């Protein structure tokens, strides 16, 4: 597996444009299965998870091509509703195909999805939602078969505002007979993006972004061309990196309204954030201040996907901070790695008590999952000396050439290939 080598201690400076959002692009690509024809999706990031989604779509019989930031997807030749176990196991987002395939073929045969080891990540809310729409589900070990000659609109209440379940049920309901109401729905911006995409194809959905989504079933959809929203987690990662290195950066094509909770935490830490339309400037010339308590919760509260990155900033802050993780039970794996870099963090159940230290020191560390990996990269950028981050494929799931992006901001970061052990020169 590739590794990143970082010479730390250099404040980030410069300007970068934000990539398209992984968590919007993945369900939107899956939702394309609801239409018969060619869709073009623009501003799609070049990521391992996108490669896997396109492989799955090809396996289902689609023609899929990624040309730069655009994906051209022809779903007309799709003729399978079965996703092999080895493809399902490569990422969590393979589950997004359940709703669309069921709606299109009346049947879907899949396996439990894979993905980063950050918690148990059950799919019971997805399955109960589809059952409410009339699906009959059989589970046999890892294998799941779901059938419904014709889905029927229903009132679906989610026990928890699961992002993926909200999206899966929305997608299944688009071609169902009658009206579906999803209550206690997740409110993430990526759900609004999915609504915009589906409505552009002729769906009739209102309410995404609130906790009640109403989908009035339509007979069929028409193909469209659509541009993915900017990635709020990549934006947030860069903002934290600027603050942790005490640099000053400008982010273009960002959506600051998706990052209100992070901006609030950063300002409490003494970081300067200025917003002008889709441009954000972030500067952190002095040592950050501790933030008494940060709690991850569903949107619009503080996102779990930025928990590990912000923990690095707090590890360098003046004072004691507490970070509470309420979404995933296994999302503190970066703590051991940060401790090896000199951080003083104690985990007690789902809270981490972070005693800020003046500096971190370079070490060889492992990206245990996507965002843990991003946090270690930030730690490496801020640390004194050399940091080696191993298992970079996990970071490649969500960051489009992270070393190129950070290199543009002046970071001293290089990728070394696992095959040749040579430095990979950015293309
Ligand atoms: C591709 C994508 O958009 N991924 C995001 C999505 O993941 P994902 O859609 O998987 O996250 P969910 O909102 O579904 O999961 C939140 C919590 O609910 C639990 N749960 C979920 C579904 C279910 O059927 N049963 C159940 O118990 C999960 O184990 C977890 O503890 O939202 C997460 C929470 O913001 C983010 O961290 C992920 O980056
Ligand atoms: C957990 C994440 O993604 P996924 O749901 O695709 O595993 C993430 O993006 O941080």
UniProtKB/TrEMBL annotation:
Q: Which organism is it from?
A: Paenibacillus darwinianus
What this protein catalyses is: phosphoenolpyruvate + UDP-N-acetyl-alpha-D-glucosamine = UDP-N-acetyl-3-O-(1-carboxyvinyl)-alpha-D-glucosamine + phosphate
E.C. number, please? 2.5.1.7
Q: What is its main location?
A: cytoplasm
Q: What is this protein called?
A: UDP-N-acetylglucosamine 1-carboxyvinyltransferase
Residue numbers annotated as active site: 116 (proton donor)
Which InterPro entries is this protein grouped with?
Answer: Enolpyruvate_Tfrase_dom (IPR001986), Enolpyruvate_Tfrase_sf (IPR036968), MurA_subfamily (IPR050068), RNA3'P_cycl/enolpyr_Trfase_a/b (IPR013792), UDP_GlcNAc_COvinyl_MurA (IPR005750)
Its annotated function is as follows: Cell wall formation. Adds enolpyruvyl to UDP-N-acetylglucosamine.
Identify the keywords attached in UniProt to this record, alphabetized: Cell cycle, Cell division, Cell shape, Cell wall biogenesis/degradation, Cytoplasm, Peptidoglycan synthesis, Pyruvate, Transferase
User: Any idea which GO molecular function terms this record carries?
Assistant: UDP-N-acetylglucosamine 1-carboxyvinyltransferase activity
* GO biological process assignments: cell division; cell wall organization; peptidoglycan biosynthetic process; regulation of cell shape; UDP-N-acetylgalactosamine biosynthetic process
GO cellular component term of the entry, any: cytoplasm
